[in-house]
Amino acid sequence: MERRTFHLEVVTPQKIEYSADVTMIVAPAYDGYLGILPSHLPMVTKLTTGVLRIFNGEKEVKMAVSDGYMEVTPEKVIILAETAELPEEIDIPRALAAKRRAEEQLAALAAWDERAIRAQASLQRALTRLKVAAQLQPGAERGHNPSSQGKITGQDARK
User: Fold this and answer.
1) Alpha carbon distance 128, 52 (integer Å)
2) Which parts of the sequence are annotated with region: Disordered (predicted)?
3) 1 within 8 A of 20, measured Cβ to Cβ
4) Tens-digit pLDDT profile for the chain (159 aa)?
5) Domain holding 31: CATH number?
6) Residue 118 sits in the same domain as residue 78
7) Which domain holds residue 127?
8) Do the domain assignments include residue 123?
């Protein structure tokens, strides 16, 4: 009989961020997003900064992850990431500030400058956090603008 779930662990240097049986994940692999179902063939791949989508039946959870590796076996997937954050863990004002700082640094540096490369990575992490946090309902305690309904607008992207 074919398995309908597999165990997922998302681990950072600080702790196990997520551990549960799931039906599918879509991970930000180095060469594009990669879907994993139960009984997947064993593999190891490099991950990049992006949104990890976790499915358990009809329920979907998103996590912002940055840089790491994913080991897949038929029964279990382990993701080792530099950072991994659920939407409720993301500090939106801090992510917006990081985004603005990175954009300012990029505007002032040559593309080949090592600082520009670090600023680009910082910008990607901030944009990923904001994308994952956008699924939250607006609320004053999270720093949302109620008129934006928690969405990142084109105007926000230019700040």
Assistant:
1) 10
2) 135-159
3) no
4) 456 999 999 999 999 999 999 999 999 999 999 999 999 999 999 999 999 999 998 899 999 999 999 999 999 999 999 999 999 998 889 988 988 888 888 787 776 778 777 888 888 888 888 888 886 545 433 333 333 333 333 333 333
5) 2.60.15.10
6) no
7) 91-158
8) yes
